[in-house]
């Protein structure tokens, strides 16, 4: 009898959990979701540019080792690409979101372009980085 | 010596005369009048028997169906934070799983027979 | 010198507990986002682990049994099995993260991708556990981990806003739920259960007797505050460098950079060496703990003082755990994220670990007249409530903040 109870309870908990997860996954994207995704991509891009700038400056001053700088730039590239992918993977659900998309998408492209220059010019990313920061402030 | 079986014996660690772990008191065997403990039973099959149900069968299955090891109560020298036996572990039959793993896996790796260092 | 070396068990345990890979990154993240306003959590955590590790060490020195061994006697085999499953799962996932952490440290030194290092690290780890004496391992990795002290010096050079240390509020722009989420993760990382299992099993391996009570206490009261201080080094340097820039920290490379900014390549090299030692130490701690918990639940022979043949089941569990950890890493799961989840889940199993220790430490059957005094009991009960509160709050806060987003 007790085993049956346990079985029933476990089964309903599992069913509820799966149902909840399923709802969250299939729920259509609304303005709020889109804003959260956009802001987090912008933050990721900002952090990647800032880190790369710090490392590049330190490398020019001889404060960090070559392999360390290489793998830090690599991390920054991966973070930027990952963030951008998360953002472009979501279709803007309405007009407001579309405006947000048109604002952020060029910034992410610029970020990608300047990141390649940062190892030689540590401050190459500063303008884009500031623009990203403004974007985050505006939309939170 | 008077002991509360549930509190003082069950689930307690059994060690040999050198303090090497032998097993847990997974169950006990009582005399016919149920007034004396005649032996300690150790091994996952004894533990699985106490659990009962599906879980118990799973635990029992980890031994590959071996019977629990029976340690006559006469071999117990002292019960404190552990149950101390008066003999060395090597004199008892080794647990089936331990013997199997020793023979087929651990014992085959170079250095298995050496103490640390 | 010999006396000095006798405290390496406590140092290694604490370093493995306080500055393992997940803690390094989450502590640095806390510093970057919240400045020094989480300093109080580190203090609460240090006192908590000291209170319980002292009890556990005393139980072990007097009864000559590691605490995990006694948990089943007090909780009964069923609840102890739940505890075992929880503790083993957390230990195993932490082990995977630590192996990943060692590999990440090697990537920072060599430039070669960390996944290439994973199998090599796992092999060296297993060989070390198979062949090298426990006390040697303890000394090498405990002492090498101390090179993280350079962070504390760096903190004074980089000058974070030390006035935030006395604040218990999130800085402007951050909200309370996220602040508490980070606080719970930091607290859980200070109190991770495998620390007491490892510490007391290590005490048994070193054959502590009631005469070693003082030794056990010195280990606790020196080792754990030291570990906490090193964690503070990450918090403070990251607060100094990253908080003014308004950015977050989520890689090991970012966490170690401040030392380079303060002391150049030597500083950076020392910190990476320290991270290597701390994560390798934590990998040893967790792989042995995985074996200890399973073996001690079932009563199997365990430990490095026996010949491996005499503890075949224990060594099998250790070997299989290392293999499972490598398999988990090779799915390319991010080792850093892995521990961040684990910290929150370990908050949930903490009560099942610490309640039995408090009960046993009051049992004259095990401890005679060495049972808890009034101070140990008062602190023990207070902390039990803190642990319970953290455990109850962990999951709701995790969902509310979307993993601290």
UniProtKB/TrEMBL annotation, chain A:
Q: What is this protein called?
A: Uncharacterized protein
TrEMBL record, chain B:
Output the InterPro entries linked to this UniProt entry.
Answer: PRC-brl_dom
Top-rank taxon, per record? Bacteria
The PRC-barrel domain extends over: 8-79
Show the Pfam families listed in the entry. PRC (PF05239)
Name by which UniProt lists this protein: PRC-barrel domain-containing protein
TrEMBL record, chain C:
For this protein, the record's InterPro entries field holds: NRAMP_fam
* Keyword GTP-binding applies: no
- Keywords per UniProt: Membrane, Transmembrane, Transmembrane helix, Transport
Identify the Pfam families for this entry: Nramp (PF01566)
Where found, per UniProt?
Answer: Membrane
Q: How does it sit in the membrane?
A: Multi-pass membrane protein
The membrane-spanning stretches of this chain are: 40-59, 80-106, 112-129, 141-158, 178-199, 220-242, 262-283, 311-330, 342-361, 381-403
Task: Name the predominant localization.
Answer: membrane
Q: Which PANTHER family match?
A: NATURAL RESISTANCE-ASSOCIATED MACROPHAGE PROTEIN 2 (PTHR11706:SF33), SOLUTE CARRIER PROTEIN FAMILY 11 MEMBER (PTHR11706)
Spell out the protein name for this chain.
Answer: Divalent metal cation transporter
- Native source organism of the sequence: Paractinoplanes ovalisporus
Lineage of the organism: Bacteria, Bacillati, Actinomycetota, Actinomycetes, Micromonosporales
